[in-house]
Protein 1
Amino acid sequence: MIIAETIAEVRAVVREWKRQGLTVGLVPTMGYLHEGHASLVRESVRRCDRTVASVFVNPTQFGPNEDLATYPRDFERDREILEREGCDMVFHPSVGEMYPEGFATYVEIQSDMPKQLCGKSRPIHFRGVCTVVCKLFNIAEPDMAFFGEKDAQQLAIVKRMARDLSMAVEVIGCPIVREEDGLAKSSRNAYLDGEERGAALVLSKAVALGKKMTEEGERDAAKVTAAMRALIEAEPLARVDYVSAVDGETMAPSEKIKDGTLVALAVYIGKTRLIDNFTFRDRA
Ligand code: AMP
């Protein structure tokens, strides 16, 4: 596996692959990899001739009071996981390589889409995400890029950006990978102590409750989200950021649950902010 730290190195390798007529898949990550990331790499390896993963804790998507400085990092372990999964190149740039002196250009969706859900408590987050993902698309020129449905708003926003800016990449969503007890895998789960790890189960339990209610026919979004919120609020270590039902593509609030409705939540467990969601599918 090639380890590239500069944009020029990635470009040179990708140029050679393209010359050979090979397709390229990209898996952007912030590292501290787990089975969720590995599932994206596997999907890319399955669908593309060559796979590039990026490991970069992107400072522009963190707010001033967020966890940029403490975000978990272990590049040696990440490198081993990527190699094992058949990744062909990992791009592991420095902050200076991605944001050189004088950097001043950002990509931002000018609608309410990035202001809903996570955007309410993280106002600059999706501007940072769009900017770094746009840069990664320009650097690796992937045919396909793989993102997890765990970050459903991010996936919808990246899809919108790629469509709006005519980017030559297919953005592909992959299912949420969970721990055996249901907790969605996340690098931030490493922050949880023993008691918090138990309390964090309220997220997946709330998702399971919402899913059950909608599968049993409940279509009133307020009733579903209120029941989910009550379940979470019964846990003393949990503090709800939001529990919302929105259109899965536009992120506009939904009063009725229908095919494609995204029911998403963010919850603080102690100081750790975790997210989870499900998308309602009308099987009828
Ligand atoms: P992150 O390193 O947290 O920025 O995540 C990098 C990519 O992995 C994003 O596309 C995430 O949506 C995806 N991802 C993170 N956790 C999971 C999970 N539990 N299941 C599936 N995809 C995930």
Protein 2
Amino acid sequence: MRSFIGRDILSLKDWERAEYFRVFEIADELAPVARNRSNCDLLSDKTLLTAFYQPSTRTRLATEAAMHRLGGHVLGFSDAKMTRAGDFYQESIKDTVHMLEYYGDVIAMRHHQQGAPHEAAKWASVPVINCGDGWGEHPTQVLTDLYTIWKERGTIDGLHFMCIGDMRMRTMHSIGYAMAQFDVEATLISPPEMSPTDEFKQELADLNLRFREVKTSAEAIADADVIYMEPVVQADYTKARVEVTEDKGITPAAYRVTRELLRDKAKPDCIILHSLPRMDELPTDVDHTRHARYWEEAFNGVVMRMALLSLILGAME
Ligand code: CP
């Protein structure tokens, strides 16, 4: 297994199976620190730099919380408009990271341009973590999802995933690549205009992932051990910011998972993950069913980033 020390976390495309389990083990080891709401001093001599060019609630704050739990320092920006990248100068990624690399020991970046963290990693002498790049990928979210499944179901192998929502989404790309490292089957459900691209389907086929596409949640839910959801009432992830419109639209029944559908058709032990934020595809009354696991992900998201930061910065091996 490759060492994590100094590694960029840009994509799950090249992750090996053993690496997932190593990260899960470290997450388990560090979880008591977060569970006890305490901080330790594992990274007390390190600084995390968060460079967020696109809005975030969970990813930025969970990554920053993780660094605080590890005793490290945090600085950064959450609105590029207040930097030179977001004003008259439109400063390039290259010039920006040539600055940032001297202000911290690891850069966590979210960007509306697909590939921006990869471009940053080309120029930065410190590791870069992709916290979501346009429609590209969202590796730390999917590591959190997989860790949650592993904790809740005790395994990932042998499970059937029902992935439902906008297949252009960065989470769907990362989970597609990740699923290929496990003995799983996947059913993909999306509106035609949000369906997986031929290129993505070819990539999944080349990775030997067993997957099929169906048209509605009702057709697939009985097989599902894990329901993995994204909205189809969706923002444009290529934009730095999307303002709210008066009529956002409603989600057709085919792409919703309701309490009634779960009651009538789902396996009793099937679990639901959603990276959030949600729209109407996942009604709030599902929160009070035994299937919901998306709130557990809030805790696991901190623990997962603790594991990644400590591995990348060499405090764990
Ligand atoms: N899951 C996720 O990426 O949420 P945020 O956009 O709030 O970070």
